[in-house]
Write a structure and sequence with these properties.
4 domains; Rossmann fold; seven-stranded mixed sheet; 709 residues; Dna Ligase, domain 1; alpha/beta; seven-stranded antiparallel sheet
Length: 709
């Protein structure tokens, strides 16, 4: 697609944003409202009023009017004198295609279609949307929508939306990129209530043309934007989305909300597929790309708003100091931070000695530090804690008391002068006082929230962002890993012996084993292998052998062997057996892989064994992994499981995950992979079972495989 873009020369150019593919949307020389009306109850009437404050020309287009709300109306786009960069289309859906053709003929660069009634409405709407897509592709016209809430650029007084009241939204550093138009507007109003302005807010709607990647790239390049709030409902091209998030988060923080946590989508048949739902896959991919993933709209806006004010420097594990004027809220903060994995280091002896001279003797003077209540020494307490070598950032809580205003002024001054590390301030009390202090502190780069638990949520997210930045610095430049496995043919699951043979080629240990087609071969295997033995039915169509009665453990005698062969044979119509040396007991984990339609290959690590579906949620990451990614994957396992793994076994588990990730990345014919259990023994990790599902028709066409971040 080729697109013609104009350089803004009109009034909107007075506060120019970065030029780029979306320039005609965010800074048009002139806007036409097609379907404009004087009736405020009609879409064209609401839109012309929303655009009334735009600082460039706005042209109503309506063949049945000569003047609308004091503006001369044109009968058609072609009748407008001078260039029009943006057309806002406020006509019924069936008329939209012809209006878009008129836009292209008139040299309009971009259009916004807010109306619904397209693919979201059924087959007729789908056909209409296909027609719109064809027009856009053929003409080079850029299109936002259809079914969108429009866009907001408060710095230019550009409010291309039907929603009343948007003209009161302040300009600022937060960009909102939302698939839902309602979420776009709700987020903008919520940010305003938090005292944070908007650089850009876009509701993508059906995204026939302009999509999430386009707006992310624009926001990343926009000098006004300091943080991005990203709302995702569904993903078609996961690799493109991840790449855009990586580009943006390398420059400024990206906070993401993926909707659909309760939607488990279609389960694959293996354990791995059942464990990797749509939400979990998307969240893991966004995290890998550098985003901070949150669970609610409130978190999305509050965290992104704070990060638009201040971003913590990159750090592997920032140490946080907490100073509170009230003990109860301080306990809430400390508890929340600890449960989210934020480090609250103990303070050094010189620090505590200094605090002892500043605070009453009954106050708690470790971390968190309780001052009893805010007083004249509060600022010096903050300075003392922040000077401790273990502290990288502060969270301060103080209710509104007579000295709180002075504390806020002093804090803002110290931060401006670089005398304090990054600070998050939590305070509550009379609304007017909080609002005034928030403005002062925001200007100094201090995020302000009102509740202690919200402050902890915000700071925990800021710490996550700092860790993401640090990981990015460690993961670049690793060479690709060559996997010594030939392309696999056929379709369906490999039998366990074939799967374990493949694992052996990767250097992953398996128990000594024999394949037996007859009872006599099984007797010979029993004589050759050290006991006790495990007898398993060998049938690629039986992936859950224990549930089918196809496994017998602890076989020590020939009579037990014959009984095991007879019993397990009932599980298969073509009985063959795999005899293995039984491995010593130990902790069991799962390492798996699945192939997501949007994000491509994913690797999974979690608690393993027969009850894997009911244990703690596994950890997912897109494949392939860098070595640092693999270490982080294992570090994300449940604490109870990590405590049971020695450091050398953690490293070994990370190495297995790393290898499996490169196998998945290089072999798109492998659609599922499940090593469960992978047992932790004194000799190392040993794969007790392997399920590998192949579909050679997918080989060579996995478009979502991407290099490690």
């Amino acid at each position: 697609m080729t697109t013609t873009h104009h350089t803004s020369t009109g009034p909107a150019a007075s506060s120019e944003v970065n030029a780029g593919p979306l320039a005609a949307f965010v800074q048009p020389r002139a806007i036409a409202v097609v379907g404009a009306s004087a009736d405020p109850t009609k879409a064209g009437g609401a839109m012309i009023r929303s655009l009334d404050c735009y600082d460039g020309p706005v042209h109503p287009v309506n063949p049945r009017a000569t003047e609308i709300l004091g503006r001369s109306a044109a009968a058609t786009l072609a009748d407008i004198d001078g260039p029009v960069d943006l057309a806002v289309v406020a006509v019924p859906p069936p008329v939209v295609p012809q209006v878009l053709r008129d836009c292209a003929d008139a040299g309009v660069s971009a259009a916004i279609v807010c109306a619904g009634g397209f693919a979201e409405s059924g087959p007729d709407g789908e056909r209409l949307q296909h027609e719109v897509a064809d027009i856009v592709a053929a003409s080079g016209l850029r299109l936002l929508g259809p079914n969108t809430s429009g866009l907001l650029v408060p710095a230019h007084r550009l409010f291309a939306t039907f929603m009343p009241g948007v003209a009161d939204l302040p300009a600022g550093g937060l960009a909102i990129v939302a698939q839902s138009g309602g979420v776009n507007l709700a987020s903008a109003f919520l940010a305003a209530r938090l005292g944070v302005g908007i650089s850009l807010a876009v509701g993508l709607g059906n995204a026939v043309d302009v999509d999430t990647v386009d707006v992310l790239d624009h926001a990343a390049a926009d000098h006004r934007t300091t943080a991005i709030a990203l709302h995702i409902e569904g993903v078609d091209d996961g690799a493109a989305l991840m790449a855009a998030v990586e580009r943006a988060s390398a420059i400024k923080p990206v906070v993401a909300l993926k909707v659909g946590r309760a939607d488990v989508s279609e389960f694959a048949r293996s354990h791995t597929g059942a464990l990797a739902g749509d939400w979990a896959v998307a969240a893991a991919a966004l995290e890998q790309a550098g985003a901070v993933v949150v669970d609610s709209l409130t978190d999305l806006v509050e965290v992104a708003a704070a990060l638009s004010v201040r971003r913590l420097p990159a750090a592997a594990d920032p140490g946080i100091g907490v100073v509170t004027g009230q003990a109860g809220p301080g306990l809430i903060v400390a508890d929340h931070l600890a449960t989210t994995g934020v480090r609250l280091p103990s303070l050094a002896t010189p620090t505590t000695n200094r605090l002892a001279g500043l605070l009453p003797p009954l106050t708690y003077q470790q971390n968190p530090v309780d001052t009893g209540r805010p007083d004249a020494s509060f600022m010096e307490v903050m300075r003392t804690v922040s000077a401790d070598p273990a502290i990288d950032a502060l969270l301060v809580y103080a209710l509104q008391e007579p000295v709180t205003s002075d504390i806020a002024e002093a804090l803002a001054d110290r931060v401006r002068r670089g005398e304090l590390p990054p600070v998050v301030m939590a305070t509550d009390g009379p609304a007017a006082a909080v609002t005034a202090q928030r403005a002062t502190l925001h200007d100094a780069g201090v995020p302000v929230v009102r509740a202690p638990d919200r402050a902890a949520t915000v700071l925990a997210a800021m710490v996550t962002d700092a860790r993401r930045q640090h990981r990015r610095g460690r993961t670049g430049g690793e060479p690709a890993v060559e996997i010594p496995v030939a392309r696999l043919s056929g379709a369906g699951a490999l039998d366990e012996d074939a799967g374990k043979t493949l694992l052996g080629q990767l250097g992953i240990a398996t128990p000594p084993r024999r394949v037996c087609d007859t009872v006599e071969q099984a007797r010979q295997a029993w004589r050759d292998l050290p006991g006790p033995l495990v007898v398993k039915i060998l049938d690629a169509e039986i992936t859950h052998k224990a549930a089918a009665g196809g496994v017998r453990l602890g076989v020590r005698t020939e009579d037990e062997l014959l009984d095991a062969l007879n019993t397990t044979a009932a599980a298969s119509q073509r009985p063959r057996w795999l005899l293995e040396q039984q491995v010593e007991p130990g902790i069991e984990v799962i390492v798996g892989g699945t192939r997501d339609a949007a994000f491509g290959p994913m690797v999974l690590v979690g608690a393993g064994g027969t009850g894997v579906e009911w244990g703690p949620a596994p950890v997912l990451r897109p494949a392939p992994l860098s070595s640092a990614d693999a270490d982080e994957l294992v570090s994300g396992l449940p604490p109870a499981l990590l405590l049971d793994l020695r450091p050398d076994r953690r490293s070994e588990l990370a190495a297995v995950a790393h290898t499996i990730s490169w196998l998945l990345a290089g072999h798109p014919e492998i659609t599922e992979l499940d090593i469960n259990p992978l047992r932790v023994t004194a000799a190392g990790l040993i794969a007790l079972d392997a399920v590998i599902v192949v579909d050679e028709s997918t080989s060579g066409r996995d478009t979502n495989t991407r290099p490690p971040s």
